[in-house]
Design goal:
Layout: E1 8-18, E2 21-27, H1 37-46, E3 65-66, E4 71-77, E5 83-85, E6 92-94, E7 103-109, E8 115-117, E9 130-135, E10 142-157, E11 160-168, E12 171-174
Parallel strand pairs: 1-4, 3-12
Antiparallel strand pairs: 1-2, 4-9, 5-10, 6-10, 7-8, 7-9, 10-11, 10-12
C-alpha cells in the first residue's frame, strides 16, 4: 500500500435517518494532512485519528471531494452504521467520461489494516469499512463522477442478516484548476 504521494485526505461517511429521510454526509471533515497513506491507515485502525470537529467546510455537494493536488484518499464508513463497502464488486466505480488515469492503487482495507487490491478477493471475514486510493490531480479544473458501492446489512428475519446494495453518488473535483 506504500505511496509516493505525501498529502492524505481522510473522510468518514456517516448516515442518518430521520423519519423517512436518509442522509449521508462527512463526519468532521479534515484538511489534507502531511502523513503517508500507511500511517493514515495505521492511525485509523488504531483509533488514534478521531477528529471531534470539522476543520474544513463540506465540499460543494454532501459527499463530493475537492482534490487540487496529488493526494492519498481514504474513505471510511462510520462504525455506528450497519454499512460496509462491497466485497464482491469494486466498491468505487467510475462513471462514463471519468478520467480513470488520474487514479491508482485502489484497495479495500480490513479492520486489522490489511489491504486487499481491487480485483482480488477480500480476505477478511470482518466487514470492509475502509477503501483507499491515489488521486493524481491535474492542474486544470475537472470533475470525475463515481459511485461508492455499499451494502446495508439488515435483519430481515430474527437471526438472519442480509445485505441491501446501495450506490452512493459523489464526485471528485478540482474547482480552482490551480493544481495547488
Amino acid at each position: 500500500m506504500a505511496s509516493a504521494i505525501g498529502k492524505t485526505i481522510i473522510r468518514e461517511i456517516e448516515a442518518s435517518i430521520t423519519g423517512n429521510k436518509f442522509r449521508l454526509g462527512y463526519k468532521n471533515p479534515q484538511k489534507p494532512i502531511d502523513i503517508s497513506l500507511d500511517e493514515a491507515v495505521s492511525q485509523l485502525v488504531s483509533g488514534k485519528f478521531a477528529p471531534t470537529e470539522a476543520q474544513c467546510d463540506v465540499e460543494i455537494e454532501p459527499l463530493s471531494l475537492n482534490c487540487a493536488a496529488p493526494s492519498n484518499i481514504v474513505f471510511t464508513l462510520s462504525d455506528k452504521d450497519n454499512f460496509q463497502f462491497a466485497t464482491d464488486a469494486d466498491p468505487i466505480q467510475f462513471k462514463e467520461g471519468a478520467n480513470k488515469d488520474r487514479y491508482a492503487n485502489f484497495c479495500r482495507v480490513a479492520p486489522d489494516g490489511t489491504s486487499y487490491p481491487f480485483g482480488k478477493p477480500y480476505g477478511s471475514s470482518e466487514p470492509c469499512k475502509m477503501v483507499t486510493f491515489e488521486a493524481i490531480a491535474p492542474t486544470a479544473s475537472y470533475v470525475d463522477r463515481f459511485n461508492f458501492v455499499v451494502d446495508v446489512i439488515h435483519e430481515n428475519k430474527p437471526g438472519k442478516k442480509s445485505p441491501l446494495r446501495l450506490l452512493i453518488d459523489p464526485e471528485i473535483r478540482n474547482p480552482g484548476g490551480s493544481g495547488g
